Amino acid sequence: MDFENFATTVYPFLELEQFHKSYYKLLDSFAQGRVKRLIITMPPQHGKSVGASTLLPAYMLGLNPDLRVAIASYSASLASKFNRRVQRIIESDEYGEIFPDTTIKRGNKGSSYIRTADEVEIIGHHGSLISVGREGSLTGNRVDCFILDDLYKDAMEANSPIVRENCREWYTSVVRTRMHNASQEIMVFTRWHEHDLIGTIRSLEKVIDLEEWQQLDNVPADTWVALNFEALKVGKATEIDPRSVGQSLWESQHSASLLASKRRLDPQKFECLYQGNPSTPEGLLYGNGFMTYQQLPKEIVRYGNYTDTADMGDDYLCSLCYAVDSDGVIYITDAVYSREPMEVTEKLVSQMINNSKTRVATVESNNGGRGFARVLQQLCPTVRIEWFHQSDNKEARILSNSATVLHSIRMPQGWNLQWSELYNHLTTYRRLFSSNRWHDAADVVTGIVEHQSGSHIRKVKFIGR
Questions:
Q1: What per-residue string of b and e applies to 98-109 under the rule 16 or more CB within 10 Å gives b?
Q2: CA-CA distances (angstroms) from residue 195 to 135, 162, 385?
């Protein structure tokens, strides 16, 4: 019996979505010993603890009654709750039919075997289940399998350097010292901070990001397998997670519209909790530093548009219309920010430009920009379309112009609602260039301030020349 069948037998009320099935298949690979070190990140209220900290220990103790399992969480009381749930499963008739050799002490008398809320032993075997809170002691206990479930209670804890360091110290001095060559460990977290324990592991040890099941073949014992379930799909479809971009993980419980509203309220926290993509405020390039405006001033001297086409299949096309006043302040007036194919974005951008007062539009691209510009010229006959090849270093450009961007550019009030993805990608963009998945929005606001300074002129080419 595999893990999914076990789970639905002992918990017949479970309703498994596609991501649950992938999750349980990975947990089964862990239980069978194919994976020694596993990291799973998942949004809150999506069933990660039911799978990893309740059903998995019972399943593994059924497969091997001599296994010594430990569950750790941010508090001893929460870890004990998981322990009691596991005990109730082992006591059930359904479990007894599947694993008759795995039994625990019943009642308060008649057996020398331990059974408390924090520790239970398997009768007739060497196996046991121990629960411990973060920074708790495990003196003298050898552990064959460690399950670490949410070692940080909330953002306040995760944002505390002291708590993070204490957690890291406890992990190295307690968890790792209780393990041996054949031990396994699994971390199931909702991310709060980029320098949490998972962030530390990723920076110091070998990690494979799982996209195909065949990656589980012959994983080295010292290598972590990691899987992140995004609440809203943003990456490419994979064998593990075949969703299309924008689809929610669990639509019937946490719809895409509900998740989008949560993202608008706090995009940085949403990236941490729901997307598994944490960033710290001190590491953000722009943050919430963009100034806003209610209406355009009367002294507008020119209108323009700047477009960066999608260079790669996963990139966004970013096209911003703007107005410039007599003091050089730039007001963003409209935007297209999309990963739709070129035949769709050509129409969206041309419609936006034709509905604006733009007279000169600039297209930046290293791949396909000239073709995109030619189509725009056909669709926008009254606008002068220019294109140029951007050869300067993108990282240097974005970082060196960041202060000018915040000083010069104004966004319309409510832009977080009007262009939520654009808002999200700009306000969560990080100073550490390699930490960012997409640079398209940052590249365009940088290009606009460069354009206004005239640094692009030597590169410009016009359609028809």
A1: bbeebbbbeeee
A2: 18, 12, 45
Burial of 166 (0-12, 13-18, 19+ CB in 10 A): middle
The answer to whether 188 and 148 have CB atoms below 8 angstroms apart is: yes
CA gap 16, 50 in Å, rounded: 12
- Among 56, 269, 300, 67, smallest CA distance to 156 is for 269
Return the SS3 of 206.
strand
| CA 115 – CA 111 distance, rounded (Å) | 10
Structure confidence at residue 462 as a pLDDT band (50, 70, 90)? low
Tokens 């960066």 map to which residue?
308
The answer to pTM > 0.85 is no
- d(CA 450, CA 409) in angstroms, rounded, equals 12
Q: Which of 408, 465, 395, 400 is nearest to 436 (CA)?
A: 395
The C-alpha atoms of residue 416 and residue 422 are separated, in whole angstroms, by 8
Extract the tokens encoding 260: 């989008």
pLDDT of residue 234: 84
Angle 94-100-105 from CA coordinates, rounded to 5°: 90
For residue 163, pLDDT over 70 is answered with yes
- Residue 185 DSSP SS3: strand
Tokens, residue 81: 């709750």
369's CB contacts (< 8 A; 6+ apart) are 309, 363, 387, 389
In angstroms, rounded to a whole number, what is the distance separating the alpha carbons of residues 137 and 295? Answer: 61
Q: What are phi and psi of 49, to 5 degrees?
A: -75, -35
126 near 68, Cβ under 8 Å?
yes
Residue 201: which H helix or E strand, with range? helix 197-204
Among 235-249, 282-296, 319-333, which range has the highest average pLDDT?
319-333
Quick count: other Cβ atoms within 10 Å of Cβ 298? 7
What does the pLDDT average to over 408-419? 92
**How far is it, in rounded angstroms, from Cα 433 to Cα 429?**
9
pLDDT average, residue stretch 365-385 = 86
Task: Express each pLDDT in 20-63 by its tens digit.
Answer: 999 999 999 999 999 999 999 999 999 999 999 999 999 999 99
Query: Domains, the chain, ranges and CATH?
Result: 3-273 (3.40.50.300), 291-462 (3.30.420.240)
